[in-house]
Amino acid sequence: MYAATKRENMAHSKDRTDVRSTLSSSISLLKTYLKPQWLKVSLLAFLLCVSIGLEILGPQLLGQFINAIQGSMQILVRLALLFIALVIGNQLVTALASYISEDISWQATNEMRVDLVLHCLNLDMSFHKLHTPGELLERVDGDIAQLANFFSRFIFMVLARVVLMIGIVTLTIIADWRIGLLMLAFTLLMIILLHPLQSIAVPHFRAARQASADLASFLEERLSSREDICSLGAQPYVMLRFNQVARHLLHATRLSSVTGQFFSSSIEIILAMAVAAILTLGAYLLRSGQLSLGTIYATYAYTTLLTQSLYVITYQVDQLQSALASLQRLTELFRTSSAIVEGPGVPLPAGALPVSFADVSFGYTAEKPVLRNISFELPAGKTLGLLGRTGSGKTTLARLLMRAYEVQQGAIRLGGRDLREAALNELRSRIGVVTQDVQLFHASLRDNLTFFDSAIPDERLKEVIAELNLAQWYASLPAGLDTLLTGGGVSLSSGEAQLLAFARVFLRNPDIVILDEASSRLDPLTEKLIEGAIARLLAGRTGIVIAHHLETVQHVDTILILEDGTIGEYGERAKLAADPASRFSQLLQTGLSEVIV
Ligand SMILES: Nc1ncnc2c1ncn2[C@@H]1O[C@H](COP(=O)(O)OP(=O)(O)OP(=O)(O)O)[C@@H](O)[C@H]1O
After folding, report:
1. What pLDDT does 496 receive?
2. Which of 92, 265, 364, 512 has an alpha carbon 20 to 30 Å from 392's alpha carbon atom?
3. Are residues 42 and 88 in the same domain?
4. What is the pLDDT of residues 437-467, one digit of tens each?
């Protein structure tokens, strides 16, 4: 019993420590992004004070107007003009304040967006395997937008409203302590009741939002698989399920509106009671000559202002919960560090680099080793042809060379230096990779080639295109380097996309080239172009070619056949080809162009 209680206490204290540490890192995150804008934040605070002052002054002026209604016309006109000027002034100050608060919040959150995108891009591949792009999009866009609202609305609006409420109650107490205390009592009553009243409505409001999100994701999923649905004649089942989801949305929305209405009606009733009580007391004080009509009017106006402020605060406090949840998720993401540790920055030798694998083993999970005791040497400027069945670990070997994952045993050396000693940036700038899956951006050909680096001149791009023998293909493009790729623009065939990927790598002029050959067949013309491009790309560089066709390894120097993550065969291509007992020569003899080892 005691042990259980102790465990529970320990768990609670751990939770508390977690909450505290998340809260403190969330606060320091906020500070980081708000600090550079302290001048604007101070200006905003000043403007909000002015706006609060003007807001409080309005009912005072109208009260004076009412008191002076029997007096001189001149004073009345002056008061009326003053009131109009005050309203205009307040609107201008409010507009300026909302401009500054939006500016502060978007600048802060945009900086956070930039840092987060960079942070996510630098995280290792295993992180990205676990977190889908959709999830990261939700962090970078959804959560940060939530924070932007928090910055612009909550921090400034709620604080301003709280100060306004304190100002109103204080002023009313000064004008007449009895009415002031009555107002204070109603304000406290409202504060006490608002939360329970709201908690009746909020779950239904959330349920309605969830139901609406469910309907949207249901539609998105079914519409994206419309081909399968139509070809399998599954429309009736889809419609049946759609009706269920839509009906659920109807119920949830109806309940949400009714409870929402109950909430605002309750507030209206409390407000009516407050107004009635204040006016009755005011009438009594007026009759006994202790209060003017103008002060009663001002008190009435303040009561309405108070209720409005309470509405705003209640809504924003509810928003605070989601903002804090967003802030917590963002803090956690920022705290996630890459499994690949930056090397001490030992420089790699210049020029084509020799590659050496020494007893390398690796598995994505502890249970399943993918590569086991791989050792080979690839001299500088030579090319290795990597063959093996699908799933034998060829791509994994290339990933280890780029340090996308860390080897679990053994070492990989480039130019005699362990990969882990080089700076990641230098390492990756020295290796060029062309994968099967070429990613194109919805952008011009120029941007697709340069990765949006405007420092690379067009002449250099045209040189590379000519060097890779792509001039004819380039001439066929409607707008040259400005041709828009993908989407509404030109879509490339897989062969053309590969050629574009070659050009990208060629532009970066790396010292090691890794080519993951496309497994599908291309038309003979494109194949010729690709063959030529590969030869140019590999000239003077160390190369690893993951080959799916025997033609591709015709010109390589060494062959490595992977079998279930181990080396099945390794040696000079010419020697293996000449040895009738070798697997490679057997492969050549079968005459299969497609490699099935
Ligand atoms: N990111 C990953 N996480 C977990 N397992 C993976 C991952 N990538 C590959 N694997 C597994 O590792 C093994 C080797 O995969 P790899 O992609 O290296 O093979 P491959 O020889 O390149 O295959 P292919 O010729 O089809 O491209 C496979 O069993 C695969 O399922």
Report:
1. 79
2. 512
3. yes
4. 788 888 888 998 898 888 889 999 998 888 8
pLDDT tens profile 489-502: 566 777 778 888 88
**Alpha carbon of 468 to ligand 1 centroid (Å):** 30
Q: Is 485 in the pocket of ligand 1 (CB under 6 A)?
A: no
Question: Quick check: 36 pLDDT over 90?
Answer: no
447-472 burial, b if ≥16 CB within 10 A, otherwise e?
bbbbeeeeebeeeebeebbeebbbee
Query: Which residue among 124, 370, 372 has the greatest number of ligand 1 atoms within 8 angstroms of its CB, and so is best to mutate?
Result: 370
Q: Which domain holds residue 559?
A: 355-440+492-590
pLDDT tens figures, 528-553:
777 888 888 888 899 999 988 787 78
The CA distance from 541 to 381, in Å, is 5
In a domain, 305, yes or no: no
272 to 62, 79, 146, 297, 404: CA distances (angstroms): 21, 29, 35, 15, 67
Asked whether 392 lines ligand 1 (CB < 6 A), one says yes
User: What digits encode the pLDDT tens for the residues 109-121?
Assistant: 889 899 999 999 8
Where is the domain boundary, 158, 176, 194? 176
Number of domains composing the chain:
3
Across the range 509-523, mean pLDDT stands at 79
For residue 213, the one-letter residue type is: A
- Using an 8 Å Cβ cutoff, are 100 and 43 in contact? yes
Residues 94 and 32 in one domain: yes
What local confidence, expressed as pLDDT, does residue 518 receive? 65
Specify whether 214 is located in the same domain as 246. Answer: yes
Two tokens, residue 405: 């994952």
- Which atom of ligand 1 is found nearest the CA of 125? 1
Which residue, by CA, sits nearest to atom 9 of ligand 1?
396
